[in-house]
């Protein structure tokens, strides 16, 4: 019977699935064929880790996002919007020992699983907070040399992280020569790119495709690009990091130099 009570029960059930009345949806950990995955639903993997190599950056786009180090090879403070399975957190923590890392995640159930993915405990270099990503960024004007934005839920990029106000806040949260890298796994990435261009200026935004994936990574920065060729730009990044991401820095450095040549900025 489709009376008012029935519709109300069904609506509340849908709301719970979407993380409404009962709060954010709980993910779970799945172990399969040597991988450890963070999932909200069976056929949708939010993050994946190699069980016997937990610090490895497995997914291509997570590797590409670290090309932000071409702009800031030795960041004092690195911010992250979105924790997930913590692959980028672990990489930065191990490979950038002089960098402070500040992470925001709005789902406490995701943070509660950090031990399952080998994410280090908070200490003098690492802080993981449960908070709204927009508020986190807005409250840290001029704070970050590098900001990695990879905030997703089971539906994709949340609406709150898709607004012009959010991208403006990302710009304002950067140091004078800071850079933000955004993972754009959406049907219409150009909508996000246009907002980044509005925030930073068209000549301060570079978008690269992931050759093996259906997403893009967008870099946006404050200040001028270094007047270096691709090889010299790559060599600014520490050898230890370059050796772990050998395909990333030369590929993106060429794009950076080409972008500088075309725009003159």
Descriptive overview:
- With 265 residues, this protein is an alpha/beta fold.
- The chain is built from 10 helices and 10 strands.
- Strand 2 (35-41) and strand 3 form a beta hairpin.
- Residues 1-21 have low confidence and may be disordered.
Regions with pLDDT < 50 over 5+ consecutive residues?
A: 1-21
Cα(first) to Cα(last) distance is: 65 Å
Instruction: Say what oligomer this is.
Output: single chain
Give Rg in angstroms. Answer: 19 Å
What is the molecular shape?
A: globular
**Strand arrangement, major sheet:** 6-5-4-7-8-10-9
Sequence of secondary-structure elements: HEEEHEHEHEHEHEHEEHHH
Largest sheet: 7 strands, mixed
SSE-based structural type: alpha/beta
Count of DSSP E strands?
10
Classify the beta-strand content into a percent band.
15-25%
Tally the helices: what do you get? 10
Mean pLDDT: 85
Range of helix content: 25-40%
């Amino acid at each position: 019977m489709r009376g008012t009570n029935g519709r109300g029960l069904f609506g509340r059930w849908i709301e719970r699935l979407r993380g409404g009345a009962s709060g954010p949806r709980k993910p779970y950990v799945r172990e399969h064929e040597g991988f450890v995955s963070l999932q909200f639903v069976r056929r949708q993997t939010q993050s994946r880790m190699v069980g016997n190599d937990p610090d490895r950056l497995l997914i291509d786009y997570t590797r590409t996002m670290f090309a932000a180090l071409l702009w800031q090879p030795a960041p004092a403070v690195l911010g992250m919007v979105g924790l997930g399975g913590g692959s980028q957190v672990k990489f930065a923590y191990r490979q950038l020992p002089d960098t402070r890392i500040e992470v925001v995640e709005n789902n406490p159930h995701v943070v509660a699983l950090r031990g399952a993915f080998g994410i280090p405990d908070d200490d003098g270099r690492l802080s993981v907070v449960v908070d709204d990503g927009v508020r986190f960024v807005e409250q840290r004007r001029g704070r970050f040399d590098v900001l990695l934005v990879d905030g997703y839920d089971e539906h994709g990029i949340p609406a709150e992280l898709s607004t012009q106000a959010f991208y403006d806040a990302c710009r304002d949260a950067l140091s004078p020569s800071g850079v933000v890298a955004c993972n754009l796994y959406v049907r219409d990435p150009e909508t996000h790119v246009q907002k980044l261009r509005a925030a930073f200026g068209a000549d301060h935004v570079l978008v690269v495709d992931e050759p093996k994936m259906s997403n893009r990574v967008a870099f946006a920065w404050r200040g001028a690009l270094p007047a270096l060729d691709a090889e010299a730009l790559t060599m600014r990044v520490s050898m230890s990091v370059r050796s772990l991401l050998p395909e990333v820095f030369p590929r993106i450095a060429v794009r950076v130099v080409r972008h500088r040549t075309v725009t003159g900025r």
